[in-house]
Amino acid sequence: MAITAPLRPVGRLPHAAAFWTTASVFLAAMAFTTIPTPLYALYQERDGFPTWVVTVIFATYAAGVALSLYLVGHVSDWIGRKPPALVALAAELVAGVLFLLFPSVPVLLVARFVTGLGVGVLTAAATAHLGELWRGANGDRRPGVPAAVATIANIGGIGLGPLVGGVLAEFAPRPLVTPYLLSLVVLALAVVAVLAAPETVERRPRRWSPQRLTVPEASRGAFAAAGAGVFGAFAIFGLFTSLAPSFLAGEFHSPSRLVAGAVPFAVFAVAAVAQVFFTPVPVRFQLVTATAAMVVGLAGLAVAALVAAEWLFVLGGTVAGLGVGLLFRASLGVATSLVPGPERGGVLAAMFLIAYVGLTVPVLLVGAALAFLPAVPVLVGFSAAIAVLVAIAGPRMAAKVAA
What we know:
Layout: H1 15-34, H2 40-47, H3 51-72, H4 76-79, H5 82-101, H6 105-138, H7 145-171, H8 178-196, H9 220-242, H10 244-250, H11 257-277, H12 283-307, H13 310-336, H14 344-370, H15 375-402
Keywords: Cell membrane, Membrane, Transmembrane, Transmembrane helix, Transport
Membrane topology: Multi-pass membrane protein
Protein name: MFS transporter
C-alpha cells in the first residue's frame, strides 16, 4: 500500500519555508520598534523639546511591552501562534500610521506605547512558533537552530531598525516620512507571510489569567543576581535605543543620522552574534567574559564622554554590547536552572519583566538628571552605576554555576 504525505491546506507554506518567513516577520517587526531611534534628534530639532522628553517617549514603549507580556504574552499557548502575531502586526501598522500622519510629541507617546503592546504579544508567540515549525520540518535534527534564529531575529531586528532609519534619514527625501512608509509596506507583507504559515497549536478553551510570575524562595540570592544581570543588560539597550543619538549629536557634534543609526546597530549586532557564537561555551566562562566586557565597555563610555572622543564611545558601546548579549543569555539560564521544568515559564516571565524595568527606569532617571545636569556627568554616572551592578551580579552567578 502506498503511503502518501498528508495534504496541507491550500495556500499554506510547508513548515520549512514557513520557518524562514516567520523568522523574517519577527525580524521586521522588531526592526520597526527601533526605526525612530536615529530620528529623535530630528524631532528635537524640529519641535525644540529637551532630551529628557526622548526618555519619556522611549519609556512608553517599554511600558507597553511589559504590560503586554504580563497580560497576554502567554495566550498563544492555547489560542494558537498566528492570531497573536496578526494582532501584534496590526498594532505596529496602527503605530506606523500614527508616526506618519501625526508626528507630534503626544501622538509619538501613543504610537510608542502601541508599538510596545505589539512587541509583547509577538515575542513569545513568534519564538515558540519558530521552534514548532522547525520540528515540523526537521524533527529532532539540530535542535539549537530555532533558538539561535529567534535570537538573531529578536536582538538583530532591534539593531537593524536604527541602521535602516539612519540610512533613510541620511539619504532619502523626507526623513520623518520615508522610514515609516517603507515600514508600512514591510509590515503589510509580514501579515501576508503570517497568514500563509501553518498553525502549530490546536486551539483549546481556557480561562484567561495574567502570566504567572515565579520567584524561587530557596534560591532568592541567585535569582536576585540573575535579575540584576538582565536589568543591567537591558539598561544598556535602553541607552543606545533612546539617548545615544542625542549624545552623538550634542556631546560629540556628530549630526549624521547614518552614524546615529549605525552605533545602536553595532551594539545590538554584537550582542546577537555573541549569544550565538558562545552557545557551546560553558556558562561560567560566558559570565566571566560578559562581566569583563560590560565593565570595560562602560568604562570606555565614561572616558569617551569626559574627553569627547566619538570613536571611544562607539568602541565602548560595542564592547559592552558583547557583554550584554552574553550576560542576558547566561542570566536567563541561571534563573531557569533554579526551579523544575513546570515552573520555568513563570520564572522567565519574571525575568523579562525585570528586564523591561531595566530598559525603562534607568533611562527615565537619566532623562530626569539631564533636566538639571550636563550630559557628561550624567553619562559617567550611568556608566558607573551599571558597571557596579554588573560587577556584583556576574561573579555571584558564576559562583552559583560553579557550585
